[in-house]
Protein: 2,4-dienoyl-CoA reductase [(3E)-enoyl-CoA-producing]
Organism: Agrocybe pediades
Amino acid sequence: MAPSPHVVPIADSTSVFKADIFKGKVLFCTGGGSGICRGMTEAMMRHGANSAIVGRNLERLTKAAKELSEATGRECLPAQADVRSPATLKEAVAKTIAKFGRIDYVICGAAGNFLVPISAMSENAFKTVMEIDTIGSFNTIKATLAHVRASKGAYIHVSATLHYNGTPFQAHVSAAKAGVDALSAVLAVEEGPNGVRSNVIAPGPIAGTEGMDRLSPKGDVAGRPGYPAGRMGVVGDIGNATIFLFSDAASYITGQVLPVDGGTMHLQSTL
Ligand code: HXC
C-alpha cells in the first residue's frame, strides 16, 4: 500500500450546507497544515471563510495554504507558530488580524502522538504531548479570546475517543485529551455570557491521516469487528461536523463533545 500523503481532499465531503454560510468570517486553525485539521479548514473555506493555518513548519504551511486557496477560491494565510510558545501564537494572531481584521472561529487542533507503554514512556515524552495538546489549546484560547469575543464566535477543540476507555500505549494522549475536553467545557460556561461557544469534536478512526497511520491496522476494515459503520471515517466526516458546529444551526449547542466515530467508541466499550 502506498504511504498516506496526509493530504486528504474534501472531495469526499457530503456537505448539505449552503456554500456561503461563512462568507466574511475568518477561521484560525492550529494544526491546519495537515491531516484532519487541514480538512476542517478546507470545509470552512468551501463554505465561504478565509483562514489562517498555524503550525511549526512554514514550508508545509505555505504549500498547504496555496493548495487550499486554489481549491476553494478563498484566502489562506500560513502563520508559523508552536502552540507551546505563547509568544509565537500571539504573533500568528497579530498576522491574522493584520490580514483579515477579525477572527470568528478557532480550531484548537495541533497534536502529537506516538505509541508507547507507560513502563517505557519517558517523563519528557508524557510532558511533550501534554504541552502540545492541552497547554497548547490553553495557549491558543488565551491568544485568540479577545477577538472571538468581539465577533461572538466559537471554538472547536479536536479531541479523540481513546480516553473514554483505557487505550493501551496512549497514556499521554489520553490524559492530554481529557484535559482538552475539560478545558472546552469550562470555556463554554465562562464565555457563554459573552456570546462565545466552545465544543469538542472527538474523531474516531479517520483514514489517510498521520494519527491513523501511526495507530491503526492497515487495509480495508469493511466487516471487521470494531467498525459498526462498516468503514473508517473520512476527513469529510469531520469537515461536516465542523461546519455544523460553527454554523448558526448549532447556536444553542455549547460545552458538548461530539464523537464522529461511526459508533466505534461504544462497540469498543462492550467487547
Ligand atoms: C517513545 C517518543 C517517541 C516514540 C518521541 N518520543 N517519539 N517516545 N516513542 N515514538 C519522546 C522523545 O524521546 C522525547 O523524550 C519526547 O518524546 C519529545 O520528543 P521530541 O522529538 O524531542 O519532541 P518534538 O520534536 O517536539 O516532537 C513532538 C512529537 C512529534 C509529539 C514527539 O511526534 C510530533 O510533533 N508529532 C506531530 C504529528 C502527529 O503525531 N500527529 C498525529 C496526531 S494524532 P526524551 O525523554 O527522549 O527527551 C492524534 C489523535 C490520536 O493526536 C487519536 C487517533 C484515533
About this structure: Residues 123-151 form the longest helix (29 residues). The chain has eight helices and seven strands.
